[in-house]
Amino acid sequence: EIVLTQSPGTLSLSPGERATLSCRASQSVSSNYLAWFQQKPGQAPRLLIYGASSRATGIPDRFSGSGSGTDFTLTISRLEPEDFAVYYCQQYGSSPFTFGQGTRLEIK
Amino acid sequence: EVQLVGSGGGLVQPGGSLRLSCAASGFTFSYYSMNWVRQAPGKGLEWVSYISSSSSAIYYADSVKGRFTISRDNGKNSLYLQMNSLRDEDTGVYHCARVPKFSPADYWGQGILVTVSS
Q1: Residue A56: which of B44, B106, B108 has the nearest Cβ?
Q2: Structure confidence at residue A20 as a pLDDT band (50, 70, 90)
């Protein structure tokens, strides 16, 4: 099983700042099948990034993903008020399709 | 518009059973694989199970293997999760999600609340 470790656990930033979230895998993620999701309270998760770096339909270009192998990053270039939420990475290359434990992005 | 509407949740005693359903509309259900993902209260996302479009490939998380069974009826555009021998730690919101080929889940249902408690 691939274990995904996200850091930091909580990130406190102000609107307009840049956010960098990390996801590290215990072994190489097959075909870089790494996704990022955003979840707000009481809502279903929303797909942001797939294939480590491709934006999903309708996702603003301030969201970008990078990385390969075992180290992946989600960057939000300029935080908007609606971006404060919990972010999860998930690998979907090999079963079990594990999630990271999440990073909470909060307003400073 | 893609819609995934879940049903079948509720309160059940430890050791009991529940069958969750997910009704799909707005897309050709038989073309897509599907996931179940759950979230315990105040906790993160946990992938539970996957079924391919034709039911030829089925996977489970170790935490539910042997107790849960995923299935689908393409003629009824429906996904199911039969949950047996339920435990306290199975409590949470269960989401069904659409999975395109070689992609992660792109549409999610709002979730079904399952509470396992005596």
Answers
A1: B106
A2: very high
Nearest to residue B48, comparing CAs of B80, B73, B16, B23? B80
Q: d(Cα A105, Cα A19) in Å, to the nearest integer?
A: 8
The token duo for B23 is 């009704």
Q: What is the mean pLDDT of residues A28-46?
A: 97
Query: Which SS3 state, helix, strand or coil, does residue B29 take?
Result: helix
DSSP state of A62: T
Residues in CB range of A69: below 8 A, 6 or more apart: A25, A28, A29, A32
Separation CA A63–CA A75 (nearest Å):
6
Any idea what DSSP says for residue A57? T
Residue with tokens 């955003």: A38
CA distance B56 to chain A (A): 15
Q: What is the mean pLDDT of residues B65-77?
A: 98
Give the distance from residue B49's alpha carbon to the nearest chain A alpha carbon, in angstroms.
Answer: 8
